[in-house]
């Protein structure tokens, strides 16, 4: 059995892992080790269960069967498996967007609805973009039309998704040439399932073309809708300060953790936890107040809009329960362990599931509907308060660790951060890259995975990038890892950033790592990149920019969909765990090489976060050279061959 420090690099998590060992409790790390060795055929992507002639597996070494029963080869099997994972990931994100669109429609139609439009400015901007008439109309009428257009994007059968217009023209031309501009979010997902049925599409590159189309429907469709409409309903994020890690939990307060992904629920839990009547009820039960914290992307949603502190990321959800002070963990959908209910039975904690799409063993189900949103949220908070007196003092173990952070960055307010109130512009960012003060930019995103030392890949990669004057943007569980490591503080620039990035952070008062939100908010990064192209001086498409992406510890099908829409948008992307294609040489070669000719981006696989960071920097320097830009303005720790050649050529 691995020691706690071999499982996590986060001090609070290490302390909790020691605690659960003392209490003889099982966590995902124990279950992961119990599964080893994991199935080699599955890891390589060459096990097929699509029809009942199988399951079939093909030999990666050439000694056994080279085809499935139907004749499917390594590449066909791996491609079908992979695009089905894209379909699942795109479905998860698009369902999120559909639910937010439904909530906006409710807010538009019903004045008594618990949800209301909070950001009329963002609504107006969206309306103008979508061609919705605003003159002489109420915001409710405008919101209804915007919601209708959003709904139409899911079921649309022909044409092009409206938000693909946000991409640079050159990038859209690439998509049209390849035949991958998404028509409707749902249509592309359905077509994947059809094409991968036994006996349909059997050309791995053609299969992947449809995978790209569905992934683009996620990034430039479902996810973008979720982000924009959430801003309209719950307010666009603003810069704010907060804290992160398990130390945000209070032994003398009712502690409620919201965990999952959909802001419709968490927004109402925030409101209910601040209700005077419920705060007074908590005091009557012996608590000094109510503390709310988040896990996973729900944490990022309520952090970005309310400054609610973050309890932890994906691999910390069981550890949070093991503190013994969580009175209720309220879950909706995505990334929620089915183990939570069983573990909670060892404590007083109540696991409360809320979505009709997701029920869990040993959990209390309190169905959440938008029609009774605040009423249901108050009922949930009352249940947590009632649990407070049932705590077992002997089982309490709360780590002290918390770290300050700054979050709340968006594609819109980055304009103001860089150019000020009166000169809102991306010009300072582009100029910084062109002069070499900034080497480039990188997006480091994604989940945690017990195959990797918890948080280490995220933090080590990010530190290496910012030390080399690469500005980092982040979302999801990576953002939480960086927050816990102190990288989301403006002061982190003085401690970790290279001289050029440090100068910029000093000038604008920003941290060297910008938190842009939850995993659906990677769509914000697409808009940022499009804005950089539109600003001028750095090429004609996203593929020309000196930028790169990475997911050091990814684990989810959603991450695969994200990876494909990022690559198809023109971004070189390094994954810490390879896609399950290693047993399919033709497909692997296409994804790490040939796909770049179509879209401008490609994948690379590297588990070592420092080596991966250097691969990203090499790519950034190559893009700088292609644009005719010189090397870094200041001396940097890692000088790629490309940057050395550029400096030498410049004399």
Structural description of this entry:
- The chain is α/β, with parallel strands linked by helices.
- It has 4 domains: 54 residues, no CATH class; 151 residues, Substrate Binding Domain Of Dnak, Chain:A, Domain 2; 150 residues, Rossmann fold; 243 residues, Rossmann fold (3-Layer(aba) Sandwich).
- 50% of the residues lie in helices and 10% in strands.
- It is built from 27 helices and 16 strands.
- The strands form 4 sheets. The protein has a 6-stranded parallel beta sheet with strand order 6-5-4-7-8-9.
- Strand 5, helix 13 and strand 6 form a beta-alpha-beta unit.
- Helix 5 runs parallel beside helix 10 and helix 11 crosses helix 13.
- The radius of gyration is 24 Å and the shape is globular.
- The N and C termini lie far apart (56 Å).
Chart the SSEs and their pairings.
Layout: H1 4-7, H2 11-22, H3 28-35, H4 40-44, E1 47-48, E2 56-57, H5 74-109, H6 120-130, H7 139-155, H8 169-178, H9 185-195, H10 204-234, E3 240-244, E4 254-259, H11 263-273, H12 276-284, E5 290-295, H13 296-306, E6 310-312, H14 317-321, E7 326-331, H15 340-344, E8 350-353, E9 364-365, H16 373-387, E10 403-407, H17 411-419, H18 427-435, E11 440-444, H19 456-467, E12 470-474, H20 476-484, H21 492-496, H22 499-508, E13 513-515, H23 522-535, E14 547-551, H24 557-568, E15 573-575, H25 585-599, E16 603-605, H26 609-626, H27 641-649
Parallel strand pairs: 4-5, 4-7, 5-6, 7-8, 8-9, 11-12, 11-14, 12-13, 14-15, 15-16
Antiparallel strand pairs: 1-2, 3-10
Helix pairs in contact: 5-7, 5-9, 5-10, 5-24, 5-25, 6-7, 6-10, 7-10, 9-10, 10-23, 10-24, 11-13, 11-16, 19-26, 26-27
């Amino acid at each position: 059995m691995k020691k706690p420090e071999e499982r996590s690099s986060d001090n609070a998590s290490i302390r909790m892992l020691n605690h659960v060992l003392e209490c003889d409790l099982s966590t995902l790390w124990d279950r992961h080790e119990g599964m080893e060795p994991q199935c080699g055929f599955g890891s390589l992507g060459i096990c097929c269960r699509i029809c009942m002639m199988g399951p079939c597996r093909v030999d990666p070494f050439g000694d056994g069967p080279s085809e499935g029963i139907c004749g499917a080869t390594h590449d066909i099997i791996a491609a079908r498996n992979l695009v089905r994972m894209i379909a699942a990931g795109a479905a998860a994100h698009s369902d999120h967007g559909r639910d937010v669109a439904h909530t906006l429609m409710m807010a538009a139609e019903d004045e008594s609805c618990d949800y209301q439009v909070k950001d009329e400015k963002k609504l107006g901007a969206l309306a103008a973009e979508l061609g919705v008439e605003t003159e002489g109309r109420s915001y409710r009428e405008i919101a209804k039309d915007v919601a209708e257009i959003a709904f139409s994007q899911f079921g649309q059968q022909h044409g092009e998704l409206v938000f693909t217009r946000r991409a640079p023209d050159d990038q859209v031309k690439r998509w049209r040439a390849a035949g991958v501009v998404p028509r409707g979010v749902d249509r592309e997902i359905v077509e994947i399932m059809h094409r991968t049925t036994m006996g349909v599409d059997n050309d791995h590159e053609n299969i992947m073309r449809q995978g790209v189309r569905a992934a683009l429907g996620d990034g430039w469709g479902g996810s973008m809708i979720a982000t924009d409409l959430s801003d309209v309903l719950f307010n666009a994020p603003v810069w704010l300060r907060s804290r992160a890690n398990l130390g945000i939990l209070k032994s003398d307060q009712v502690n409620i953790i919201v965990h999952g992904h959909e802001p419709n629920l968490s927004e109402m839990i925030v409101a209910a936890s601040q209700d005077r009547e419920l705060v007074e009820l908590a005091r009557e039960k012996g608590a000094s107040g109510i503390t709310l914290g988040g896990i996973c992307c729900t944490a990022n949603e309520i952090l970005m809009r309310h400054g609610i502190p973050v309890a932890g990321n994906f691999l910390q959800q069981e550890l949070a329960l093991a503190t013994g002070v969580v009175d209720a963990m309220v879950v909706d959908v995505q990334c929620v362990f089915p183990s939570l209910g069983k573990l909670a039975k060892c404590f007083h904690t109540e696991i409360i599931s809320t979505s009709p799409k997701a029920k869990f063993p040993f959990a209390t189900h309190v169905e959440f509907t938008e029609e009774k949103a605040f009423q249901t949220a108050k009922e949930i908070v009352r249940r947590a308060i009632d649990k407070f007196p049932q705590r077992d003092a002997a089982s309490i173990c709360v780590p002290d660790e918390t770290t300050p952070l700054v979050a709340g960055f968006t594609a819109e307010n980055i304009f103001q951060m860089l150019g000020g109130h009166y000169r809102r512009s991306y010009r300072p960012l582009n100029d910084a890259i062109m002069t070499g003060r900034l080497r480039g930019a990188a997006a480091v995103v994604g989940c945690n995975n017990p195959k990797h030392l918890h948080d280490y890949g995220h933090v080590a990669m990010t530190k290496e990038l910012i030390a080399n004057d690469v500005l980092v943007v982040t979302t999801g569980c990576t953002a939480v890892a960086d927050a816990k490591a102190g990288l989301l503080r403006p002061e982190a620039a003085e401690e970790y950033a290279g001289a050029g990035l440090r100068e910029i952070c000093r000038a604008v008062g920003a941290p060297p790592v910008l938190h842009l939100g939850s995993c659906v908010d990677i769509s914000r990064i697409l808009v940022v990149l499009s804005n950089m192209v539109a600003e001028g001086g750095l090429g004609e498409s996203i593929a020309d920019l000196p930028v790169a992406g990475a997911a050091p510890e990814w684990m989810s099908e959603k991450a695969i969909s994200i990876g494909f829409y990022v690559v198809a948008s023109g971004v070189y992307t390094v994954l810490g765990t390879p896609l399950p294609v290693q047993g399919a040489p033709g497909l692997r070669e296409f994804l790490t090489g040939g796909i770049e000719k179509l879209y401008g981006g490609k994948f690379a696989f590297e588990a070592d976060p420092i080596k991966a960071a250097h691969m990203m920097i090499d790519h950034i320097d190559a893009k700088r050279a292609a644009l005719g830009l010189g090397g870094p303005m200041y001396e940097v720790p890692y000088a790629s061959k490309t940057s050395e050649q550029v400096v030498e050529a410049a004399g």
